[in-house]
Design goal:
The structure is a homodimer. By secondary structure, chain A is an alpha/beta fold. Helix content of chain A is 40%, strand content 13%. Chain A has helices at 28-48, 62-67, 78-89, 111-123, 134-150, 176-195, 213-220, 243-255, 278-286, 325-328, 343-350, 360-364, 383-417, 446-458, 486-504, and strands spanning 14-15, 18-19, 160-161, 164-165, 169-173, 202-207, 228-231, 259-266, 291-295, 320-323, 336-340, 422-424, 432-437, 465-469, 472-478. In chain A, the strands form four sheets. A seven-stranded mixed sheet of chain A has the order 5-11-10-9-8-6-7, with helices on both faces. In chain A, strand 14 (465-469) and strand 15 form a beta hairpin. In chain A, helix 4 packs antiparallel against helix 13 (383-417), helix 6 (176-195) crosses helix 11 (343-350) and helix 8 (243-255) packs parallel to helix 9 (278-286). The radius of gyration of chain A is 26 Å and the shape is globular. At the A-B interface, helix 1, helix 2, helix 3, helix 4 and helix 5 of A face helix 1, helix 2, helix 3, helix 4 and helix 5 of B.
Chain lengths: 507, 507
């Protein structure tokens, strides 16, 4: 056809088959076809992930070698990207979705959350102010108020109580670290205003079991590292913070002319799931006007069940609490929920009011502008997936999900108990079992525990990680990956037993 | 059937139809069915969004009234959530995806990006360290190195140059504000180490056109607000910063015993798309060892076209640059790319090394642990969607996309020029047109410009926002929403003309 190709294409690219049609990034055929291919991939992935090595064996830089160091000039069918995803990306993934994943904490997930996140990606609203995306802001506030009820948080943390607006506030952030950072900034500014002290006179507190990201957040907020107090813990409190030691530390600082400013208490530490006594921490903190934040990133989700709620006792006396449904409430990343008792204290440190964002709704004071509760300005439609999880599954299924994981963890704990080669290191609070080889016929030092872990992990049939508790290397077995069933726990246990038996032949 | 329902269901809930099956959040049937329903919704939404009012008219609190103040106890079919989404959420959305959206900056999007984000949600990896998700880290590094080539950034910003690792580094963050914050923390720590000064002696700089989130990030990082320098700009530099004034401000601070620490230069300000002269800013900054960051959040994407690349001239002399493909490179939120010339300076301020994240790969030093370049620890599979965009569309289509938007903006600019009731306020650099009613037959004060905007917006047929430039209220017409075509620009212009004609009848 001699005429084809003779008209210059709008893009200037003329192919052998004539001009290329104009580029439409949201062409309906492409939207449907790319997303259907993605759904097929996901369905296949979930069916086959169980049989893949949990921990891959790729080498640093491998992906560049496989996919090329430079971007392509010309477009390619979407199938090319999907083919490369299957061939090159999947084999290099540590499969958090695998039912044989027992490392860190699980990143739980659900069909409703993924669908909600997909719709958020497609609507692609940017809800910095209420007016910029009213339903996105309202949905986030609603989902957070619903979750507050599941957690039986005091009404003082809710955005709205009854028909009127409360003093509390909440926001969905990307990570716990961001929740710490924004509350640290608020506490810092309040302490400086109240005391007249400089930033380098402010002191912050946490137990030695608190996630390392807390002191990183303190550094980010400009606190002086010489004023970071890490309170030692031990087995006598199951590694929860001792309020007497916390009091002594705050008293010593106050005597030395420093200003105790912020304490982070944890419900379910990353290392061993230790629980700080929130009520006692708050009592001590109140003596010094110290901001109390509760980090319940993982274990907060369990507190939707009445039998676990007591771990939050005392929360009515704290200033803020954060927990992450992306850990244990079936909501894919990112989803960290931060609640504060006095939203104005947060916005005083975080609000901005540039001309180009001014609008009548903000001026009215009747609305929440979520940019004033976070680090950045822009934000996704973050509440949708969390709402879809609660709307579709209901409290009943969410509680069943927590109880099932805890029951499976208990089953694993019982198996470990029954094997005299192992010991449980700390009492199990939730769905994490901390255990190690004890001195009974085999060497029981850190090295042999590390070897057991390495040997298990290199089979590709399970992946568990370690920590150090009380100076000893401990293996962490975290139950709850969303495709996990009892049979996977049993297989992992058999693998551990077989691995140690094989090791014993040589020790 | 008398036996059905007699066995207690695992969840304890027995329905009229017998026991409920155990709850599986990633059941294959649900995954496929929920996601297919979501895809159908998206396809319908894109087809119908053009006819919806761009700016909704809902009242604060409306969603709670429609969806209920408390979470449901019992599960519901996914169709219920989808029905409520259509009935209650969609009417409350400010439709960033509408082709009639001209407010703020567009949040551009594409089928490839949405599919990539969907797959990331489903795989739900948490790539804090390389080992925790090697392919996710490698993909992020690869996508960033590809994008660096599209932008013709100096090799010093790339993770890998040739086969070996460079000193540069990059990371995908949620927002520009986070990019500012982490680089501010690095610059702050370097300045304090080098000078021995305290944090309250450090000074930071930006033009008065810089996004307000910059000084918010400075406050977050603990800088003293009395040391924030906002350099005035004017029409004589088209609102770009004057290096002479910047030099004078730094000199005055240095003379006063302060330590000039960080300057933020912008390529394409939010207000009017002004461009700071990067090379000249870097020359001034070098005299005082000041960290130079370039915020190219919006306009950075245009620099993939050779004809716009000159706006980045001098970037080889800066310390860091960030730009957001979620604004203008067809990649849905969140996607802000931060490049730094010396990755170690960033990780020195941001790294953590808790026992439970220790692994052989990190110890080897051969890998990038992305947690050490961001605020938090956890992170999604962020690189996938950006890679899919570049892989599928190729540089050719991405450049066509930029050029098409700029051509449409120029068309609008020409229409405004040809109407003697309006004036163009600042020269158009990219796809944002800043205009206002000028004194020609109609009142031309801020109030009438504001009224024009309000009258246009309340039709629901277009949405534009305002700013203040040079003390005057200015209307911003931002072209580029991903479903936009020439006809939408023409319709919006007709609407603006009709609206002002109607207004003239009464003034």
């Amino acid at each position: 056809h001699p005429q084809m190709g003779s008209i210059p294409a709008r893009s200037g690219l003329v192919t052998a088959f004539g001009e290329r049609p104009p580029f439409h990034p949201l062409n309906d055929d492409d939207v449907r076809s790319y997303l259907h291919k993605a759904v097929d991939f996901i369905s296949d992935y979930y069916k086959s992930v169980e049989s893949m090595p949990v921990l891959p064996s790729v080498k640093p830089g491998y992906l560049r070698d496989e996919l090329g160091a430079s971007p392509p000039v010309h477009p390619a069918p979407f199938d090319v990207a999907m083919k490369e995803l299957r061939a090159s990306v999947v084999p290099g993934i540590t499969h958090w979705a695998s039912p044989n994943f027992f490392a860190f904490f699980p990143a739980t997930n659900s069909a409703a959350a993924i669908a909600g996140d997909l719709i958020a990606s497609a609507m692609n609203t940017v809800g910095f102010t209420w007016q910029a995306a009213p339903a996105a802001t309202e949905m986030e506030v609603l989902a957070l108020d619903w979750l507050a009820q599941l957690l039986r948080l005091p009404r003082s943390f809710m955005n709205r109580t009854g028909a009127s607006r409360g003093t509390g506030g909440s926001v969905i952030l990307g990570t716990t670290s961001e929740a710490m950072l924004v509350t640290l900034a608020a506490a810092r500014d309040i302490a400086m205003r109240r005391s007249g002290a400089g930033i380098s006179d402010l002191a912050v507190y946490a137990s030695d079991q608190t996630h390392s990201t807390f002191f990183k957040a303190c550094r980010l907020a400009g606190f002086d590292p010489t004023n970071f107090r890490s309170i030692p813990t031990g087995p006598e409190t199951d590694y929860g913070v001792d309020p007497v030691k916390l009091l002594a530390a705050m008293q010593a600082d106050a005597m030395a002319g420093l200003v105790p400013t912020y304490v982070c208490a944890t419900v379910g530490t990353t290392s061993s799931n230790a629980v700080d006594p929130i009520g006692d921490v708050a009592k001590v903190a109140a003596m010094f006007n110290v901001w109390v934040h509760v980090d319940a990133a993982y274990a907060g989700s369990a507190c939707i069940c009445p039998e676990f709620r007591h771990h939050l006792n005392g929360v009515e006396h704290v200033d803020s609490i954060s927990m992450s449904p992306h850990k244990w409430l079936l909501t894919c990343l990112d989803c960290t929920c931060l609640y504060v008792r006095d939203a104005r204290r947060l916005s005083q440190s975080l609000e901005t009011d540039p001309e180009y964002l001014k609008n009548d709704a903000s001026v009215s004071g009747d609305v929440t502008d979520l940019k004033d509760m976070q680090v950045g300005v822009g934000r996704r439609f973050r509440g949708l997936k969390l709402w879809m999880v609660m709307r579709t599954y209901g409290t009943a299924n969410l509680q069943e999900h927590i109880r099932r994981d805890v029951a499976m963890a208990k089953m694993f704990e019982d198996l470990v108990h029954a094997d005299n080669r192992f010991e449980i290191v700390v009492p199990r609070n939730f769905a994490l079992v901390c255990f190690r080889i004890k001195a009974a016929g085999v060497r029981a030092d850190d090295e042999v525990n590390r070897l057991l872990m390495a040997n298990v992990n290199k089979t590709g049939k399970a992946y568990l990680t370690h920590t150090v508790v009380g100076g000893k290397l401990v293996l962490r077995f975290a139950v709850g990956s969303s495709l996990q069933e009892e049979k996977h726990i049993l297989s992992a246990w058999e693998l551990i037993r077989k691995t140690i038996s094989d090791m014993m032949k040589y020790v």
